[in-house]
Specification:
The complex is a heterodimer. Chain A is built from 20 helices and eleven strands. Chain A is of the alpha/beta class. Chain A folds into two domains: about 250 residues, ABC transporter transmembrane region fold (Up-down Bundle); about 210 residues, 3-Layer(aba) Sandwich (Rossmann fold). In chain A, strands 6-9-10-3-11 form a five-stranded parallel beta sheet, sandwiched between helices. In chain A, strands 2-1-4-5 form a four-stranded antiparallel beta sheet, with helices on one face. Chain B is of the alpha/beta class. Among the domains of chain B are: about 170 residues, no CATH class; about 200 residues, P-loop containing nucleotide triphosphate hydrolases (Rossmann fold, 3-Layer(aba) Sandwich), CATH 3.40.50.300. Helix content of chain B is about 60%, strand content about 10%. In chain B, strands 1, 2, 3, 5 and 6 form a five-stranded antiparallel beta sheet that branches. In chain B, strands 7-8-9-4-10 form a five-stranded parallel beta sheet, with helices on both faces. In chain B, helix 6 runs antiparallel to helix 7, helix 7 runs antiparallel to helix 10 and helix 8 runs antiparallel to helix 10. The longest helix of chain B has about 55 residues. The N terminus of chain B is likely disordered. Classes of the chains: A alpha/beta, B alpha/beta. Chains A and B meet through helix 2, helix 3, helix 4, helix 5 and helix 8 of A and helix 3, helix 4, helix 5, helix 8 and helix 9 of B. Chain B: Its main location: membrane.
Chain lengths: ~550, ~550
C-alpha cells in the first residue's frame, strides 16, 4: 500500500493543478448526483403532502423543479469536464513516469541494461505502466472525491434532519466502504501476483516449447513439456478464479453497504417523521441521499479489482525509477596529455561475477592516432566483452586503461563519450527519420549538418540507398525497421562517424555485408576519420588487411 | 488468402462458437443478473409504501418505517445473493472457455511439423497468454450486461406503464428507441476506444524503442537528446489522444445526460401529479404518494443497464478481435503439417540400417515439393549430407527423425517403418544437434542430462565442452535462458554434443554443426562428433563445410532444386 501511495503522490505532484481541478469536478459530480435525488425525493414527497392537504396552490413548485433540471444538466456537464481533466492529467503523469523509467534504465549498469532490453522485460515494463493508469483514475481520485462527498452529505443531512441520520449514514459508508473493502482486498496482491506469474508462465512455456519442439520431440519430452505448459494454464485459471471471487466480494460489500445505509436512513427518518420531529419530505431526503451516495463507492469497484496488479507493477516501476545515479568519478581527471597514446591498455582482464574463469585476461596495447587495431580470437574468447570494457561500459577486473594519458575511470561520462564511441555488434536504430537517427550523434542542442551527414553516408556506401528512399527525411520503423541488417549496421557506423571520435570501437562492423561492400565501408570510414584510432573486432579475415596491428585473444 | 468472403464467419459467429460449450451457463448467469435487477421494483414499492403512510397516515396498505426498512434490507440481501450467483456462474464459464481454448491451441501448435509452423513462437505466446485473456471480461462483464440491457428496461417500462402511461412515455423519450440509442453509443465508443488503444500502444512502442537502443544512446552520449525527443513526442501523442477522448466521452455523456434528464422529468411529472395540477396519464385514477415515490425510484434504475452495457462495450470489441485472430490461427494450424507421433517418451527399437526411399517433401506450406534421393546408412557409419542451400539437407534430417511428414516415400530402421504409431519409439534411437540451439529456462545440468543418470564429466570432456561450462557463472547450475545468454553459437553446439554423448543414443543427426564458426571452434566441434563416432554412434551430418565433410566416411549429395 505504501508503494502505491508514494507512487500516487509522485504522479500527482507534477500535475497538482490538473488533479485538483479534476478532483473538484469529481466531487461536484457526486454531490450533484446526491442533490438531484435528494431534491427529487423531497419535491415529490412535499408535493404529495401539499396535494393531500389541499395546499397545492401555495406550493412553491418553481424553484425545486428548476433545481432538479439544473442539477440534471449540470451533473452531465461536470461529468464530461471531470473525465477530460482527469484523463489529461493522468496521461501527463504517465508520460512523466515513462520518462522517469527511461532515466532509471539509462542509469543501470551495462549488464542490467542488456537484460532489460529483452523482449520479455520490455513487454512487462509497458504492461506495468499500463496497469498504473488506473491508480489515479480508479483508486485515488474516486477515493478522495467519494470521501469529500460523504463529508458533504454528513454536513447536509445533519443540518436538514439532525445528527442521527447524518452520522448513521456516514458511519455505515465509512466502515463498509473503508474497512470493508480494505479487509476484502487484503489478499489482492497475493492473487494478482499469482495471476501474473501464471500468465508469464504461459508466455514463457509457450515460447520455449514452440521453439524447441523438434528438440523436445526427439528427446521424447514434448508431451511432458506440453503438460508443463498446460499446468501453467491451470495455475492461471486458479489465480483468475481467486481474483474473480475477490471482485465478487467487493461488489457484495458495496451493495450491502448501500442497502444498509438506505434502510437505516429510512428507519430513522421514518421514525422521526412519524413522531413529528421532521416532515415526511425531509425524511425522504435522507433516504434518497443515502442511496445516491452508492455512486461514490461504486467507482472504487474497478480500482479495487486492479489493486493487487497495481501494487505489483508499482513495486517494479519504483525499483527502476529509483535507480541510484551513475557513480561520478571520485578523483577528477587531469588535463589530456597530447603526447600520450589515444588509448592504452595494460594487463586488462575481466571475469563475470561468480565465474572462476576470466572472460579475457592480460590484454595490453597502445593505440595512436590513425592506427587500426584488430582484436581476433575464436568464438567465446571474449572479444565483445573486451570491447565493452574498452568503451567504459563495464569496469575492468584488473589492469589499467587510459585515454590520452587519463585513466578512463576518472573521466566523467559526457567527457568520455566526447572522445570515444563504439558501434556494438547488435547496434540499434530508433523509429523516426534517417536525420533523427543521425542527429543522435550530435550534442543535445546541435543541428544536423546535411553535408556532413551525406559525407558520412557516402563513407559507408549508403548514400545511394538513402537517396533512393527519399533522403534524410525518410522514415524508419521502430528499431530501424525497413532497412536490411547490413544497411542498418552501416547507418549505425555513419552515425558513430558523425561524432568525429578520437577513438572508435567497432564490433563486427562488416557482419552481414558482402566482401566488396565490407571493403568499401572500412576504406570509407578510414578516409572520413584519418586521425581516429580504430579498435575492430571481426572474425572475417579479409577485414584484417586494414589492421595496423592484430591482437589475438584466447 | 483464406477462404472466400462469403464462407468467412463474422467475428461474432466465431466468438459464439468458441463460447458454445458454456452458452447455457452464460445464459443462466444472464438471467440471474436480470432477476437481481428485478428485485429493485419490490424495494421501491416498500419505500413508496413507507413514505406514503407517513404522508397520509391511515392510508391503506400502510407500512411502518421499521418494517419497511427491514423488508428493504432483506430484499437487498436477496439481490446481492442473485448477483453473486450470476457472477460466479459467468466467471466459471469464462474460466472453462479460457482453459479449453488455450489447451487446444497450445497442444496443437506444439505438434506442428518442424520448420513449417503456421505461427511464430512469439505469436503463439502472445495469443495464448494475454490476447486470449480478453475472452474473460467478455464473458463476465459484457454478456450479462448485454442480456440485462435487453430485458430489464423493457420490464421496468411495463411496470411503470401499469402505474402511469405518461411516466412510461417520459422514460421512452429519455431513452429513445433503446436499440438505436445503444447502437449509436456503441459505435461511437467502439471507434473511439479502438483509436485510443492505438495511441496508447504508440506511447508504449516509443518507450520500448528507446529502451531497446539504450546502450547505443549511452555510447553516443545521446541520452539527454533522446529524452527531450521522447518528451516532445509523448506530448504530441497525448494531445492527439485527448482529441479522441473528447469524442469518446461525449457519447457516454449523452447517456448520462439522458438518464439525468429522465430522472428530472419524472420528478417534475410525479410532483405535479401529486399536487393535483396534472391529472393525466394515470389511467383515470389519482396518483397516490406511494405510487409517485415508486415511479421516482424506478427512473434511475431504468437507465442503469444501458450504462453498464456502455461501460462493457470495450470488452466486446477486444473479444471479437481476439476471436478472429484465434480462428485464423487455428485454420492455419489445420492447414499445416504435424510431426509424426505425439513426442512422448518411447523405447528405442533394435538398431539396423537406416533406409529411405522415394521421399517427397514440401519444406513449407507454400513451397513446391522436393524429391530427395534414396539412401541407406549402416549402423556405425558417419555420413555427410551435402548440397547447396535449399537442396533439402535440413528437411531430410527432420524427415528421418519423423519431425516432418513426407508426401510420399518411406523410412525404415532395420525392419521398423517410421509412422505415427512408431514415431515416439523411433525417435528414442536418435540424438539431435540443431543449427541454432534454443535453451529452455532450466539449469545446464538438466539441459544436458534431461534428468537421467549417466556420466556427465565424461560427456563434457568428450565434447570438449568442459571449458565452456567452467566459464559460465555457476558452471553446471547456470541457466542459459531463452537466447542462450552467455554462450556463443559454437559453445552452445558443443554443449549439445555433450548432451548427445551423455544420452548415448545410437544415431545422431547434426544440422550444419560448424556453420558460421571460425576454423578453430569448428575443429573442436568436429573432434566432439568424431568422439561420438568412435564409440559406435551412427552419425548423419548436414553440412557444406569441407573440413567436416572430409572427416565423415562418405557423403550423400543433394542437388539444388532436385
Amino acid at each position: 500500500m505504501k508503494t502505491l501511495l508514494t507512487l500516487a503522490w509522485r504522479l500527482i505532484a507534477d500535475q497538482k493543478w490538473s488533479f485538483l481541478r479534476g478532483l473538484a469536478l469529481s466531487f461536484l459530480v457526486l454531490a450533484m448526483g446526491a442533490a438531484l435525488l435528494g431534491l427529487s425525493g423531497w419535491f415529490v414527497t412535499a408535493a404529495a403532502v401539499a396535494g393531500i392537504s389541499g395546499l397545492g396552490l401555495d406550493f412553491d413548485f418553481f424553484r425545486p423543479s428548476a433545481g432538479v433540471r439544473g442539477l440534471a444538466l449540470g451533473r452531465a456537464a461536470a461529468r464530461y469536464g471531470e473525465r477530460l481533466l482527469t484523463h489529461d492529467a493522468t496521461l501527463r503523469a504517465l508520460a512523466d513516469l515513462r520518462l522517469a523509467l527511461m532515466d532509471g534504465v539509462a542509469r543501470r549498469p551495462h549488464e542490467a541494461q542488456a537484460r532489460l532490453r529483452g523482449a520479455e522485460a520490455l513487454n512487462r515494463l509497458t504492461s506495468d505502466v499500463d496497469a498504473l493508469d488506473g491508480l489515479l483514475l480508479r483508486l485515488v481520485l474516486p477515493f478522495l472525491a467519494g470521501g469529500m462527498a460523504q463529508l458533504a452529505a454528513l454536513g447536509m443531512l445533519w443540518w436538514l434532519e439532525g445528527e442521527a441520520i447524518g452520522i448513521a449514514v456516514f458511519l455505515i459508508y465509512f466502515f463498509g466502504a473503508g474497512f470493508g473493502l480494505i479487509w476484502v482486498a487484503r489478499a489482492a496482491r497475493r492473487d494478482a501476483r499469482a495471476a501474473e506469474t501464471a500468465l508469464q508462465g504461459i508466455r514463457r512455456r509457450a515460447l520455449e516449447t514452440m521453439r524447441a519442439r523438434a528438440d523436445l520431440a526427439i528427446a521424447g519430452q514434448l508431451e511432458e513439456a506440453t503438460a508443463r505448459t498446460l499446468a501453467e494454464v491451470e495455475a492461471d485459471a486458479l489465480a483468475r478464479r481467486n481474483l474473480e471471487a475477490l471482485d465478487r466480494r467487493v461488489a457484495a460489500v458495496i451493495a450491502a453497504t448501500t442497502a444498509l445505509a438506505g434502510a437505516t436512513a429510512l428507519a430513522i427518518g421514518g421514525q422521526m417523521a412519524a413522531a413529528g420531529q421532521i416532515t415526511p419530505a425531509r425524511a425522504a431526503i435522507g433516504l434518497f441521499v443515502a442511496l445516491a451516495l452508492a455512486e461514490s463507492v461504486l467507482l472504487l469497484r474497478r480500482g479495487m479489482a486492479e489493486i493487487g496488479r497495481m501494487q505489483e507493477a508499482g513495486a517494479r516501476v519504483r525499483d527502476l525509477t529509483d535507480t541510484p545515479p551513475r557513480p561520478v568519478p571520485e578523483i577528477p581527471a587531469g588535463p589530456a596529455d597530447p603526447q600520450a597514446p589515444l588509448l592504452e591498455a595494460r594487463a586488462l582482464s575481466f571475469a563475470r561475477p561468480g565465474s572462476t574463469r576470466p572472460v579475457f585476461e592480460d590484454l595490453s596495447f597502445t593505440l595512436r592516432p590513425g592506427e587500426t587495431l584488430f582484436l581476433t580470437g575464436p568464438s567465446g574468447a571474449g572479444k565483445s566483452t573486451a570491447l565493452a570494457v574498452l568503451a567504459g561500459l563495464m569496469p575492468p577486473g584488473s589492469g589499467t586503461l587510459s585515454i590520452e594519458g587519463r585513466p578512463l575511470a576518472q573521466l566523467p561520462e559526457p567527457e568520455l563519450r566526447r572522445h570515444l564511441t563504439m558501434v556494438p555488434q547488435r547496434s540499434q536504430l530508433i523509429g523516426g527519420s534517417i536525420a533523427e537517427n543521425l542527429a543522435l550523434a550530435l550534442p543535445a542542442d546541435g543541428a544536423l549538418d546535411e553535408d556532413a551527414a551525406w559525407a558520412a553516408l557516402r563513407a559507408v556506401a549508403l548514400d545511394e540507398v538513402i537517396a533512393g528512399r527519399g533522403g534524410l527525411g525518410a522514415m524508419l520503423g521502430e528499431g530501424g525497421g525497413g532497412l536490411s541488417g547490413g544497411q542498418a549496421k552501416r547507418l549505425a557506423l555513419a552515425r558513430a562517424a558523425l561524432r568525429q571520435p578520437k577513438v572508435l570501437l567497432l564490433d563486427e562492423p562488416t557482419e552481414g555485408l558482402d566482401p566488396a561492400t565490407a571493403r568499401t565501408t572500412l576504406t570509407g570510414l578510414r578516409a572520413l576519420l584519418p586521425e581516429t584510432g580504430f579498435v575492430i573486432v571481426s572474425h572475417r579475415s579479409p577485414d584484417q588487411a586494414f589492421a595496423t596491428r592484430s591482437i589475438a585473444l584466447r | 488468402m483464406m477462404s472466400t468472403a462469403q464462407d468467412d464467419p463474422t467475428p461474432k459467429m466465431i466468438l459464439d462458437r468458441i463460447a458454445a460449450p458454456v452458452a447455457g451457463k452464460l445464459r443462466m448467469a444472464g438471467w440471474l443478473g436480470i432477476a437481481a435487477a428485478l428485485v429493485w421494483p419490490a424495494q421501491a414499492a416498500l419505500v413508496g409504501l413507507v413514505l406514503g403512510t407517513l404522508v397520509a397516515p391511515g392510508a391503506s396498505p400502510g407500512l411502518s418505517p421499521l418494517a419497511g426498512a427491514a423488508g428493504f434490507l432483506g430484499l437487498a440481501l436477496l439481490r446481492i445473493l442473485l448477483d453473486w450467483q450470476s457472477q460466479k456462474l459467468s466467471a466459471n464459464a469464462a474460466e472453462t472457455v479460457l482453459r479449453e481454448t488455450r489447451a487446444r491451441l497450445l497442444s496443437r501448435a506444439f505438434r506442428q511439423a518442424s520448420r513449417v509452423a503456421a505461427l511464430s513462437p512469439a505469436e503463439l505466446a502472445a495469443l495464448s497468454a494475454e490476447k486470449l485473456a480478453a475472452l474473460e471480461p467478455w464473458a463476465t462483464r459484457y454478456r450479462p450486461a448485454f442480456l440485462r440491457a435487453r430485458i430489464v428496461p423493457v420490464a421496468f417500462l411495463i411496470l411503470v406503464a401499469t402505474q402511469s402511461w405518461a411516466a412510461a412515455v417520459i422514460l421512452l423519450i429519455a431513452g429513445p428507441l433503446i436499440p438505436l440509442f445503444m447502437a449509436l453509443v456503441g459505435m461511437a465508443a467502439q471507434e473511439a476506444s479502438e483509436k485510443q488503444m492505438i495511441e496508447i500502444g504508440a506511447l508504449n512502442r516509443l518507450l520500448i524503442d528507446r529502451i531497446a537502443a539504450i546502450t547505443d544512446l549511452r555510447l553516443l552520449g545521446a541520452e539527454a537528446r533522446s529524452r527531450a525527443d521522447l518528451e516532445i513526442k509523448s506530448d504530441d501523442l497525448r494531445i492527439r489522444t485527448m482529441a479522441v477522448l473528447r469524442v469518446a466521452f461525449l457519447s457516454s455523456t449523452v447517456l448520462e445526460l439522458f438518464s439525468a434528464i429522465g430522472v428530472a422529468f419524472m420528478a417534475v411529472y410525479v410532483g405535479f401529479s401529486l399536487i393535483g395540477w396534472m391529472n393525466f396519464g394515470t389511467w383515470g385514477v389519482k396518483m397516490t404518494p406511494a405510487e409517485g415515490i415508486f415511479l421516482l425510484m424506478i427512473a434511475p434504475e431504468f437507465f442503469q443497464p444501458l450504462r453498464d452495457l456502455a461501460a462493457a462495450w470495450h470488452d466486446r470489441a477486444a473479444a471479437l478481435a481476439v476471436a478472429s485472430e484465434l480462428d485464423a490461427t487455428e485454420q492455419a494450424i489445420d492447414g499445416a503439417e504435424t510431426m509424426l507421433g505425439t513426442g512422448g517418451a518411447g523405447h528405442a527399437p533394435a538398431i539396423g540400417a537406416l533406409r529411405w526411399q522415394g521421399i517427397t517433401i514440401r519444406p513449407g506450406a507454400a513451397a513446391a515439393p522436393i524429391a530427395l534421393p534414396d539412401g541407406t546408412v549402416a549402423p556405425g557409419e558417419a555420413v555427410a549430407i551435402t548440397g547447396p542451400s535449399g537442396a533439402g539437407k535440413t528437411t531430410l534430417l527432420t524427415a528421418l527423425a519423423g519431425l516432418i511428414r513426407p508426401e510420399a516415400g518411406s523410412v525404415h530402421l532395420g525392419d521398423l517403418r517410421l509412422s505415427d504409431e512408431t514415431a515416439d519409439d523411433w525417435r528414442a534411437a536418435f540424438g539431435w544437434i540443431p543449427q541454432s540451439p534454443r535453451f529452455p529456462d532450466a539449469s545446464l545440468r538438466e539441459l544436458i542430462t534431461l534428468n537421467r543418470p549417466g556420466d556427465l564429466e565424461a560427456a563434457l570432456a568428450a565434447a570438449q565442452a568442459a571449458e565452456v561450462v567452467a566459464g559460465l557463472p555457476g558452471a553446471l547450475d547456470a541457466r542459459l535462458g531463452d537466447m542462450g545468454g552467455g554462450v556463443s553459437g559454437g559453445e552452445a553446439r558443443r554443449l549439445l554434443i555433450a548432451r548427445a554423448h551423455y544420452a548415448q543414443r545410437p544415431i545422431v543427426l547434426a544440422d550444419e554443426p560448424t556453420a558460421d564458426l571460425d576454423p578453430e571452434t569448428g575443429a573442436k566441434i568436429i573432434a566432439g562428433l568424431l568422439a561420438l563416432r568412435a564409440r559406435g554412434t551412427t552419425l548423419i551430418v548436414a553440412s557444406h563445410d569441407p573440413a567436416l565433410i572430409a572427416a565423415m566416411d562418405r557423403s550423400i549429395a543433394l542437388e539444388a532444386g532436385a
